[in-house]
Amino acid sequence: MTGDRAVHRSTMPLVFGETRTRIFLCTGFAIGPAAIHHFLMAPAGPQWWIIATDVLLGSLSLLLSVRVVLLRGQKQDQRSYRLVEQWYTLALAASIYTLR
Questions:
Q1: Considering only Cβ atoms within 10 Å of each terminal Cβ, which end of the chain, N or C, has fewer?
Q2: What Cα–Cα distance (Å) separates residue 70 from each residue in 22, 53, 73, 76, 81?
C-alpha cells in the first residue's frame, strides 16, 4: 500500500481500506468454489480429473480465503498473491479441458 500511495495508484485497499478489502477477498474466495463447481465442473460430468481439479481449486480457494484475513504483512501478501496466480492459472486450464 505504501508504494501504491507513493505513485498515486488507486487500489482497493487504498479506496476501501485494508480490512474491508480483506473481508471482500475472503468472502469471494470462500464462495468461489461453489460457483466454480456449479458453473464449470459439474456440467463436465463426474470424470476423475474433473473431480480432482474441483477439489484442488476449492482447496486452494479456501486456503486463500483464510490467508487474506489471518496472514498480513508484505511477505505474506506477496505469497498470497502468488497463490492467487496459481489458482487463476489452474482455473483457466480447467476451463480449457472442461468446456471442450
A1: C
A2: 9, 26, 10, 10, 14
